[in-house]
Every structure is written in C-alpha cells, then in structure tokens.
Amino acid sequence: MARLGLLKFRIGGPNILTDWVYGDNLVHAQLLASMALIDDLPGRSGIPPAAGQAYFISDGAPLNSFELIKPIVEGVGYTMPQRELSVKSAMTLAWGMYAFYGLLYPWLQKSWIPEPFILPAEVFKVGVTHYCSTWKARQEIGYTAIVDKKDALDRTVTYWKERHSQELDGPPLLSWIFLLGGMFLLFLCVYVPAPFMGPLEFIRWIGLFIFRSQETLRIILYLACLAHLLEGIYAWIVAMKADRKNARGWFWQTLALGYPSLQYLLKRAEKKKLHQK
Q1: How many domains in the chain?
Q2: Which tens digit of pLDDT belongs to each residue from 83-118?
Q3: 136 and 256, same domain (yes or no)
Q4: Measured between alpha carbons, how far is 98 from 120 in angstroms, rounded to an integer?
Q5: Is there a contact between 94 and 118 (Cβ–Cβ < 8 Å)?
C-alpha cells in the first residue's frame, strides 16, 4: 500500500494495542509444545501437560499496529501518514469496499482484479485493542520470548530493506492512472473519428484548443511513444548493471511510465554505486 501511495491515514489512536509475535518466538513455542506432548520422558507421568490445550503466544509486549510498521515503512523509503481516521469512519469505508467487491464476485479470481483496499476484518485488527496473556504458556510449557521486542523489530526492518532492494520499485498508483490514462486519451484524440468519441469528445476539443491542430496532436503522440521507448531501452541498460534480476520488469515499467519509473531505477543504481564504494 505504501508503494502504491495508498497508505494515506492511520486507523484509530495510538492507544490501540494488539499482540504481535516474532517468527522465532512462535517456532520456539511450537517446539516447547511438541515436547510437552511427549508422554514417555523421564520423570513425567500421567497426561502430558500440553495434551488438548491451547495457548496464546506473543512477544509479550502489545504494540500499536501503526507504530510497529512505522520503522519498516520509513526504512524502505516511504512516509507514514500523520492523519488519523476514526474506527467508525474506517468501518463505513470498509463495508462499502466489501459491498463493491461483492458485486465483483464472479471475477474475484481474475489476476487483473486488485485486492480490496480495506475490509472490515482489517479495521478490527488494527482499530480495536486486543491482546492476551501468555501466562498459561509460561506455566505449562515454559515459554518465554527468546527474541525481545527491539531485536525482533530490528531484524524485521533489516529483512524488509533487503527484500525491497531486490524488488521492482516504482511510482504510486496515481502516476500509473495519470500517465497511462493520458497516453490512452491522446491516442483516442488522434485516431478515433469524432462520431465515436462520445462523451470524451471534449478531450479532443481541449487538445485542439491548446495545440491548434490534429497534426500537432499526432506528432506529440509519436514523440511521447518514442521517448518512452528510448527511456525503456535506457532503463534496460542501467538495470543490467544495477539490478539484473529485475531488468525485464524495469524495461516494461519504464516503457509504460517513462521518466517517473526511470528515476526510481537511477536512485537504486546510485545507491548501489555508493554501497560498492
């Protein structure tokens, strides 16, 4: 969401706390529980302590969800929003999104359908305080968090930084809509006859008012396509040196978006050059 520019607000206040568990702590708890299911250990008799039991496992330090992800989001170069959206407003938005995607039910498995921006379950997860005690796990299976909150967060930030440096980066969603939509409208203005433009005919009127002739619009379209092609080729060349794994993705993304995509690649190439020094 942060990459697409969709992380625009926090949900609820900073006093909303939830449980989190680091992977190593969870695996440690599973190992302890499996040991507590063995019934033939020396000194143990009767029913194993973990038989038929359920345990709450966490790091033992409830955190606000947005305070948790803040160092991760900022660590990979994005900005955390400062605006807060009330839980009530977030639920209204979430149920609206739920209803909209309900109408799309026959096509939800299609790859071209994006994931919903927000759903009621996500609002409950981050907007309502909920955490549990690990007392039972501590008493019956001897669980304690082997990685504390600070180390867990540091490791998580490091992981996401490394992962982000290996993935294709790019402009926010609005840039995709603006650039691809603009190119599409320019194509319509140049090649679609007036009777078939329908309500979009006013776009051609605006173009003709600014550029004075259909021929000028055609030249602009050709130059824009040529510029995107050259930028895509240049992106391929740069990516083969700076990010070979994603070279093909950088080419296609820059071919579609032009310089807004290329600048992300150039920043990555500069970071790699500084890192090598």
Answers
A1: 2
A2: 999 999 999 999 999 999 999 988 888 877 888 888
A3: no
A4: 8
A5: yes
Q: Range of 246's domain?
A: 173-276
Tell me, letter by letter, the H, E, C secondary structure of 106-134. HHCCCCCCCCCCCCHHHHHHHHCCECCCC
The answer for residues whose C-beta is within 8 angstroms of residue 223's C-beta and 6 or more apart is none
How large is the average pLDDT for residues 206-223?
Answer: 90
For residue 173, CA distances in Å to 6, 38, 70, 114, 222 come to: 8, 53, 21, 12, 25
Same domain? For 233 and 263 the reply is yes
Same domain (yes/no): 145, 224: no
Pick from 165, 197, 219: which residue ends a domain?
165
User: What's phi and psi for 53, nearest 5 deg?
Assistant: -105, 155
Whether 265 is in a domain gets the answer yes
- 18 and 65 Cβ atoms separated by less than 8 Å: yes
Q: Are residues 150 and 202 in the same domain?
A: no
Q: Provide the pLDDT confidence category of residue 277 given band limits of 50, 70 and 90.
A: low
Same domain, 113 and 26: yes
Q: What angle do CA 250, 253, 254 make, to 5 degrees?
A: 80
The model's pTM is 0.74
Instruction: For residue 269, give Cα distances in angstroms to 24, 55, 142, 157, 208.
Output: 34, 48, 49, 21, 40
Report if residue 5 sits inside a domain: no
Q: What is the helix (H) or strand (E) element at residue 11, kind and residue range?
A: strand 10-11
Percent of the chain residues topping a pLDDT of 90: 60
Query: What gap in Å lies between CA 134 and CA 146, rounded to an integer?
Result: 14
**How much is the average pLDDT of 120-133?**
93
Nearest-angstrom CA–CA distance, 155 and 116: 29
Has residue 196 got a pLDDT over 90? Answer: no
User: Regarding predicted confidence, which is higher, 273 or 30?
Assistant: 30
